[in-house]
Every structure is written in structure tokens, then in C-alpha cells.
Amino acid sequence: MIVQFYVYPLNWLSDLFNDFYNIVLTFSFILGALSLFDVNGKKIVQQSPGWGYNLVLLISLVITLICGLFIAPPGHLPIDEGTAFDWIFKYLFNPLSGATYSLLAFYIASASFRAFRARSPEATVLLITAFLVMLFRVPLGEHLWHCLPFVGQFDISKFIEDWIMGGFNAAGQRAIMFGASVGLISVSLKILLGIERSYLGGD
Amino acid sequence: MIDKLANLDRRWIFVFLAISVILPLIWPLGLPVEISDMTRKYYDIVEKLPEGSYVCMSFDYGPGTKIECHPMAIATLHHLFRKKCKVVSLSLWAEGSMFPREAFAEVAPIYGAKYGEDYLELGYSSGGEAILRGMGEDVRNIFPKDMYGRPLDSFPMMKKVKGWNSFSLVCSWSMGTPGVAEYVRVVAGQYNRPVVAGTTAVTTPEAYPFFNAHQIGSLLGGLRGACEYELLVGIKNGQATRGIESQSSTHFFIAFLIILANIIYFAKRKEE
User: Fold this and answer.
1) Is residue B57 within 8 Å of residue B121, measured between CB atoms?
2) Are B130 and B143 in contact (CB under 8 A)?
3) Which one of A30, B35, B99, B211 is separated from A96 by 20 to 30 angstroms, measured CA to CA?
4) Chain centroid, CA B143 distance in Å
5) Inter-chain contact A117–B261, Cβ cutoff 8 Å?
6) Beta carbons within 10 angstroms of residue B37's beta carbon
7) Considering CB atoms only, which of B32, B66, B212 is closest to A170?
8) CATH says B37-235 is which class?
9) Do the Cβ atoms of A165 and B205 come within 8 Å?
């Protein structure tokens, strides 16, 4: 794959491996569904604590699967507008998923009250940076900033965009990206060379 | 008093947070929103597209982050249809494949855009980066049919479309992986096509290095970016514009909590 990236005539290799990858990935969906049935089925049979949730999960999975694959009025596909699958997506999955995600805001608020303290110089720098981004990247913060005497003339949004986000943040993100990529290469090499075998169930 | 505050029941925090979200939605303040350079650049890139250009839009988000990414997609669609561009949508996220239909249904009738002539939905295919590589030379390698099972060649607009080189611009609105990084590696990196992106506020910092390195043309960051773009495109009372004041008040409330928590922390440390 690395060679084909640089050598154009070998691009067909990429297509070939892409096809392999897509086939494996498609089968992994089946594996995932079977695994869900296995794990949750056991809990339901054993009536482990909270088994009702496992039952709901499996029932939802089966109903969505059936609706998405088979149920449609004549001349329509199951994914067309107005079908049962479309209804499940619009009126069940959409609001439930949105509500679950929005709960994060409440937990963040609670966590920020309990954990975000200026305990060390590093934490203080993080706190100040977070403060600046949080307050002055929203219209209310910008408006209040411009009402301040003297400093209000200074373009705080541009400072945040160019220096904090585009400068310090981008540099840090790049370092993380490079680090993760080097780590990925090293793990891949270990797997290819047979040094790392834990994925086969060994140590 | 300090002890009482330190042990504040978190349900009070939840109540006040809910109030700070709801109040600006009921009584908006109508605060001015400054347009950032990044959003202006995004607008300029779309504005400079020649009429009738082919644009690929990737809806790489789920319902959880729809509130941030969907307004970007809607505003971009307005802008593109105004310029009579041809739009092809796809999704690297299974959940995302249902959103193009919603977006097209909202925007296309305003401009008289028709399915198959002005826009088309490819739908979802699993594989992330592999999908983008597979589409490189010919979209049909991965999507021989549209989302509704009709052959791509049966649509007039698809006659001119082969691989990535057929597109004048590729937009990716993403909430994570697969998303912007995959488009940068394949579409911008290998096929040298211009890419613009829209990300959730949480993932925006991760996308900044791509913007700084000019690997993406521009970036809309979170609800704020969406709101700025809505204003530039001229969408009145758009979803992001309605939500941005709630975000403002919530940010201020959380900032207040952090200040309060630190006052308590230092007061307690002094006592000890």
C-alpha cells in the first residue's frame, strides 16, 4: 500500500487490497451482530442484573433489521421516505441519540464544577486557555469584551483563532498526530513480523 | 457557606444549565455575530466555483451532532444551488446517509433542483478511507447504483462524473473518524482536489493542522462556524443562528461554575 501511493502503475494494488478490506469489513458487521446476540442472549437467559435492557437492545436490533431489509409498500424500498425504517430513524433513533449526546453538556457542567481547579501551573494554563476559548468564541463573550474600556479595541476572536487555535493547539494536535502515526506503524510492524500476537488470543 | 457550596447537589447545576439553554431560545438577545476569516474563506471558495460545477458533499455525522453539522450542510446547499452546482452526496457514517434526503428535501424545492439532474444521493458504504480510495478513478467502483438502487448511468448529471477529478469541490461535515482526515489523505493528498470541511466544536481542534497546512481550503468550526456561514449565505433565522445564543449562555454558566469551584478550592486551602 505504501509503495502504490508513490508508484502510479502499481495503483491496482490499492484497489485489490481495498476490495479485500471492504469484504472483510462487511463480514465484520455479521460478526458484530452475532456477537451482540451471543453476549446479550447469555445475559437474558441467565437473567443477570439489568437483563431487561439487553432484551430491549435485541428486540430493537431485530425490528430495525427486519424493517430496513424487508418492510416496504409495493414499488418502494425499505429505506424510502415514509417506510417503517424511515419512521424508526426519524422518530426513535434521531431523538434518542440526540438526547443521549446532549446529556454530555450536563455532565460536563457538573464535572467542571468538581474537577477543573487551578491545582498546578500546568492546570492553570489549561484553565486560562479554556476560559478564553469558551467565553470569547461566542457572541455574548465578544459583545461583552468589546464593551470593556481600553482592551475592548483588541480583537480577541482573532487572537483566539490565530494564536490559540491556529498556533498552540495546531502544534499540539500535530505532535499527537505524528506520535499516534509512528505508534501505529510500530504496532503494525510488530503484528506483521509476528512479535505481537495478542490479537490471536495469545499473550 | 463554603462547605455548603462545595457539596452543592449537582441537580441544581442541571436545573440552571437547562434554564441557560432554554431562556435564549425563548427570548433571543439578537447579539451581533462577528464573521471569522475562516468562515469568510469557506464562503469565498464556494462563491468562486463556476456555475454548474460538480460538488461532492459527505454527511459524516450522526443524530448526536446533527445540531452542529446539519446547518452547515443546509447553508452550503443553499449556496451551491444558488450557483446552479450539481451536488452528489455520500456518507461514510451509516447514520449520516439519512440526512442528505432531509437536507435536499428542505433546500432543493426552493431552487427548483431535481433529483438526478441537479443532485443525487449515493448513500452509505462501509470502509471509510477504503471507500474514498475506491472512488478515486470511478465513483461506480463503490457506488454502481444510487441510494435507491438505480444505476448511476441512468441519471443525466452522472454522465460527466468519473472519479474524484470530476469534482470541483469536496465538502466533508464530520464528527470524527472517518471524516476530514480521510478526505485529506485521499481526496486532497492523492487526487489534489480542493476540500472544505465542517466539524463539531469538539473535533475542530483536530482539524486545525489540516487548515494551517492548506490541506483543506477552509473549515467551519462547530455551531459558531455554522452560524457565521448562515449569516454570510443570508439564511434568516437558521438553525445555527437560533442555537448560538443558547451556546453563549451555557458557556458563561460553565465559566461561572469553574470560577466558583476555584474560589471554593482556594478558600478551603487557606482554611487548611
Assistant:
1) no
2) no
3) A30
4) 23
5) yes
6) 13
7) B212
8) alpha beta
9) yes
- With an 8 Å Cβ cutoff, are A135 and B252 in contact? yes
Residue B208 to residue A169, Cβ atoms within 8 A: yes
Give contacts of A84 with chain B, Cβ < 8 Å.
Answer: none
DSSP helix/strand/coil, B161: coil
Q: Which sequence spans correspond to the domains of chain A?
A: 1-70, 79-115, 121-203
- Domain assignments of chain B as residue spans, ordered by start: 2-28+248-271, 37-235
CA distances from A23 to B126, B143, B147, B163, B183 (A): 10, 15, 19, 21, 21
**Predicted confidence (pLDDT) per residue in B223-249, tens digit:** 999 999 999 999 988 999 999 999 999
* pLDDT for position B107: 97
Contacts of B98 in chain A (CB under 8 A): 79, 86, 89-90
Q: Which residues of B touch A119 (CB under 8 A)?
A: 265
Give the pLDDT confidence of B155-173 residue by residue, as tens digits.
999 999 999 999 999 999 9
What is the C-alpha separation between A62 and A78, in angstroms, rounded?
A: 15
To the nearest whole angstrom, how far is the Cα of A198 from the nearest Cα of chain B? 24
Which cell goes with B44? 469565498
Cell of B54: 460538480
pLDDT in tens, A157-167: 889 999 999 99
